[in-house]
Amino acid sequence: MPTLNLYGDSLHGEWTLTSPQHPQIHTRCSLPGDIHSALLEANLIPDPYFACNEQQVQWVGESEWHLSRTFTLSAHELSASRLLLGLTFVDTMATVWVNGQEVLQCHNMFRRFEADILPWVMAGENQIQIRLLRNDAEAAERASRLPFPIPWAQGNNQIPHMNLLRKTQCHAGWDWGICLLVSGVYGEISLEPVFAVQPLQVRTEQEWRADGSCRLHVDCTYQVDKENVPLVAQVTLLSPTFSAQGSRQENSQHQVEQIHLEFPPQPCGEGRFRHRIDIAHPQRWWPAGYGPQPLYTLQVAFIDVSAPDTDAPITARNKLIEKRIGLRQLELITEDDAIGSSMLFRVNGQAITAKGANWITLDALPSRHTPERYRRLLEDAVAANMNMLRVWGGGMYEQDIFYDLCDELGLLVWQDLMFSCALYPSTPEFLLDVEHEVRYQVQRLADHPSLALWCGDNEVIGAIGWYPESREQRVKYTVNYDRLNRLLAEVVEQEDPSRRFWASSPCNGELDFGDAWHDDNRGDMHFWDVWHSGKSFDAYHSVKPRFCSEFGFQSWPSLPTVKSFAEPDEWNITSPTFEQHQKNGRGNSIITEMITRYFRFPISLEQQLYLSQVQQALAIKTAAEYWRAYKNHCRGILFWQLNDCWPVSSWSSIEYSGRWKLLHHHARHFFAPLMATFIHEPFAHEPNAQGQPMLTLHLVNDRHATQSLHGEVLQLSWQGDVLQRWPLTCTAAPDSSAPIWQIPLPERNPSNASGSPNASESEARRGFYHVVLHPASPNHQANERFENSFYPDEFKRLPLQPAQIEYCISGDDQGSYIELWSQHPALFVHVEYSGEGRFEDAGFTLLPEAIGGRRRLRFIGSASCAELAAGVKVYDLRSTY
């Protein structure tokens, strides 16, 4: 077995994996990690993501697994008062054995478990074993003991009763997720000898003064194990520009404060001290797009003055807790108004428009939850001008690296508690387990400046009306729900009074059990009428949510991603492999039907995949731009979903491979701080004297500064000729949306029975409208421009001309580029590279070269010009038929 020389180290690394049901298996497993990944690495299972292999690996989740290793201890370590074994993210039912003695039982993936193993260890080599028990069997056994049935998410989960376990719910499958009932240990596995004092927790609280200063309260709890020993604590706050490496400090920078606190000898037991630090000129933390993200470093060290190595550095001989904190004020504002009730976040006194997406678990195989992948996805979110992510309640409370990166990047976090799309027990043992879980998670995460909101669950209020049992006895199941939800609220309020608790998503407000799926006057809304009910994209104009925390539309993945999971003879939308990688029962049918509604149907698979992504981008763009134009009504737009946990057809804007779909490229524009959008509806702003419908251009400014712009609106024929030109000079007030241009335009109507064109068809045959705006400041970047287009009819009815796109690839010291030009307008232009990397923009309208429409795109990646030339494919809408 692998061994470890231990002092202040972890038990991470190589373990031995066996199974009592499969005695022939004896292989390695790296922890933190999961069993499926270990078996895959050992070639004992096929890749579950490829073809239809999902069904071939279900036996793994139906087996018990044992993880074993040895570790060594010295006599010095055995002289400690306690030797603490700590584990986090243990998935899920498990027992831990040391030298043949059971020392710990784990039963909740979202809790930290700890045991003093000193009575069962010895100097020299020791053995530890983690037995991962069958989660499916435990769920079935718990179901048999319930006082009344608790319905589970049968439309999503393939394994019954996962709602009875405190485990990632989508491990049993979802309507975008593979069913892999993984198990393992994904977090800390530590051994910590305690000699004199053990720091337990450091929490902070910010008190803001009228003069703009901030008083930081530092609250520390600790455990004393040795009586009558003097205790010294050192509290250090480093400014955001201060750097420290171990005990070496950069003297060119400064400390905000460092203080030594000396305590008289204390009895054994838990202690606590509170210290305050006054910061006269705090550097405030802001969400992305609103300002910088300075992070202070707080260190609390306990110095054992009785230790023999008193000259050693603090970090080497003592217990140190270090965390980064951001100084900011954050409020969730829900105030009654003429419409209903507002819902918006205010940061440092300024109203914020939340723009972003929903976050699901990073990968169905937790071994692949690497810091590099977290960073790449979160940086991609910021690159698309997002400032908020909702951590969805069917996944997991994320790893520390996720919240650290959100702090660093300025991504606000809407944090669901882990309950989703099912009902849950309210038995005493379940409630006690959940109480410990939520208390631990709130204590763990509360000091992150990115954390904006605690939400009780995802769609559980609504789920009461989904199941026959709860529909028949609605009062009973509502009381059952309320018992759990009230407990969650109480724990959050006790542990983090600085933040609001939001009962559920969607929710109309506190103690309001109304229909938040369809009420756009208050609370947060999940608007799914387009995808699930088959309504047109114009249905997004029928509502103006106060805060839309879910809406979405699926697309198929790109061809390079399809190639990663399907053999060439399976490259077909209705092949077994492709359908295995579509988990929504009607998904492919909905995508196909909507394509026929708006577009001419493409023939090749490549064109079908591309057009599905055009359609998805158009759907979300339609909603986001409209709601942003009415920003006084709507202050939050989070689409479903940012990422995929395996290669699949889904609602994501970024594919499992990391490729940006067209939606993510479009999000960079429709979430931009400055945005211009056309809105065509009856009396969109003010009707003209004849009461005609109007086409209005709205200018949206999320910045808290006035913006001056100039540019023009063009009406272009389908050949690319300029039919009309309207010069524009405009000023956008801070945090505003206002119309800046308007003309009468007939409503879109189907052709009449005679077959002669109506007014809207005649308009569509003439051409389309396009706006280009530039900042008026003389020192703005040359490529800083804001564009958008309006097309007067369904795309299948438009007389598009073959664009005849040409391009060339070049490079210089700054990187590689593609330059594109065309003879006629090209819609939804997308340059796809088959290898790693992407071009900086996609999905745009390329105007003819004759009127200055040439575009130069930078490549983001390491491919050479020769590699790009061999691997580039250019798509546009007209080329699909």
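Next protein, fold it too.
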Amino acid sequence: MLFPGHAIHTHTLVVVFVIYAVVVSASIGPARPLKRITNPSTLALEILPRRPNTHEPRSFSSRSPVLRHSDTFRLTLSAFDQTYHLHLRPNDHLIHPAARVNYYHTTADGLTVLDRTEPLLRENVKVYWGEVVPEEESPSRMREDAAGALPRPSQQRTLGWARIIVHDQGDITQGTPPIYEGAFSVQGQIHHIMTKDNYLRHKHEFDSPITVFQDEPDSPLIIFRDSDLMSILEEHTLRTGIPPDLSEPLQPPRTCGHDSLSYNTDPNLNPSLRQDNTSPWYDSLGVFNPFSFIKRDDVAGGNATTNFINNIGQSAGCPLSQKVLYMGVAADCAYTAIYGTTSNATTQILNNWNMASSLYKTTFNVSFGIVELQVHNATCPTIADPENPWNVDCTGPANLTLNDRLSAFSEWRGNRTNDGVGLWHLMSGCPTGSEVGIAWLSTLCQQEATGDAPNIVSGTAVSTAGRTEWQVVSHEIGHNFGAICTTGCNSTSSCCPSSANQCDAGGQFVMNPTTAASETTFSPCSLGNICSLMQGNTGWKTNTSCLVAPNPSQKVISLQMCGNGIVEAGEDCDPGPGTNSTCCDSSTCKFTSGSVCDPANSQCCTDSCQFAPSTQVCRLAKDATCDTPEFCMGNNATCPPDVFAPNGKSCGSKGSACASGQCTSPSLQCQQLGASMNLQEACPAQNDKSCLVSCQDPTAANQCITLQTQLVDGSPCGYAGTCMGGNCKAGSLIATAEAWYTRNLTISVPVTVAAGIVFVFLLGLTLLCIVRSCRGRRNDRLRFAEPALKDQKPERIRSWVRPVAEIPSVLQPGSSFSRGQAPSMSRSGSLASRDTHGRSNSGGPVPPLPFSGTARVVAQSQKFWVDPSPWNGPPR
């Protein structure tokens, strides 16, 4: 959509430039006055071709010129003699699938009652974020955006970030330009875009007035840069008209406004302020610690000298993958009164969180999502409601300071049931003096309330309305994450220094105590501050249980609310907000008389509110090979479950396979989605489990382009995995191993060969050991069976003729006769077989066999045998 260019007019408030030094307020205060504003000219709002989306309603045309919440587009505008190209894509995490808005009003007796509850539907919130791209890079970036490619910072040059909420798309036929708000940066210079109405709501006495020019009387927007803010010196001169006293030195703010709360400064109350006093094993006395001899400056209730100088620039501990922090936001009556209506207040809150969320996403990989809004009308109660003690006017009997309001809001938050909300934030219209925000330190995910009034602590913060209130919101949420301020540092103060060699950050970053220019990024020390607390290496570990992974296929949590377009328990039908139906009573979500179904919620329902016949197709086949159509049952309004061919079934050439009823492949999806970039082949991602379409870059070898679109459910991912709902589900162990082997042949083949060689070697070694073991056992058996007289010549022992009952005395050893020849002896019984061993015997006597020691032992062990040594003498 193109719009005619408008003349750019700048109104400048001339001030006197002098040098002045002043003590700056020690709390986070309002922004300085503006000396220059101008009107931007919207040159074009170009919606890129839409990709297929199964979640879009059937009635929505993909060629519709109406901007939708899910669109990607380029916004081209001009201001300050420059043309800017903002490439924007939807912020899908800002609205929780079950988000709702509770609107309250004040009764005559001062009580706050719930007026109505409405769903906060994602399609009704047009919030976007992206980058500012140089003009020469914009055409190629448009082609990538059309394909849904994720930004590649290493491949393209960008000028800065962009965050926009679109209120009205405009109408080119009527000549009305779009209405939007937000901010973008160009080479570090922040540009803020506001509607005229919002600018006038927050305009201070010395802010530049809006000038209406004749050639552009109805310009709805104004734009200004951070450099258009007055300096402290200019503001002082303008307010007083007196030149400054140059003898006073410039002193930066020493502390944040949150330092006035004892919980935020006293380590006895807040464990996140306690230092880890443990020393490594090699330095038990701490002599090698360069900070071990620094004197502690225990002031303001004993605050710790925490400065995170050792963690500057370190992101270890912060999430490595995208996380979402779901929050609740409340707006008191004074805040709504500033914006006029509850609808305007709601829109402003969404704008604030869109910009703050993008900042935290790019810094800490954490996005913000809103799950509930509590918006009170502009009429403040005369007496504080005990149920909502924080919802009171800035003045009156309650007379709550910002600190008191924080304590009351914390108590209210603690009394709520476990709602799963990580942080609650109160938007108020009641600053206290120059203090515009306050928060409890390191209370992320803390749902319960502790302490006593006026110091009741929970995961809460308070910000007040202002020209750039999103910066205040970002600052206070930073305290909830554990960040301390970045200005007024010295070697002993509780502060985050600019660097290891420079203490004061000079008011350049988000955690600066006062709102000023360039407060749109976190300092390297704040990065290390928050991430080190998440890691827990400082003695305290931040509770991150409420940081959850975004789930693109997350089911909508039941709101139990008629009018949200979701048929819930107890409802027959629900046509949605502001929709009339002849079949459904939109006020009760019940069928009208005679109706049995509603075609707005049921596919098998006719326009006459009756069940469709069984011949009616309720779901067409996606593919003739992989899917079949489903027909209505005829007796109910529900279409039968989708039945299709198994995922992975071959259905065509080039690796095409069935996936959720479609015949497709990763390469085919690259061709369908990346036609604008001439993408043809899928990237051979070996172990990619992201389930995002990843294609080979046709202009650069070995480069991949990852698209924002998910692979079709049932497509392959990782090693033998399958994509389902954006998640890669692993296959069987055998299939995973097989896939790894076939996709890593350069590794698997050498490893297999080496393993085979080792196996053969071990097998041969084992066989050799077995053979040697067998031989050794046989030799042992032979050695064990060898006779003691194997080397002696065999001789038969002479036997006696008959047995002798006892040996005569004359034959006893030692007698004279015993030294003579021994008489022959015999045994009873036949010994032929024993004596001859089967060989013939001459019958004559056999010479006695010489006996060895071993033989003697054997002989003595035999019954009826006599030791021959007394007769034969010792053996030879």
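About the second fold: The longest strand covers residues 95-106.
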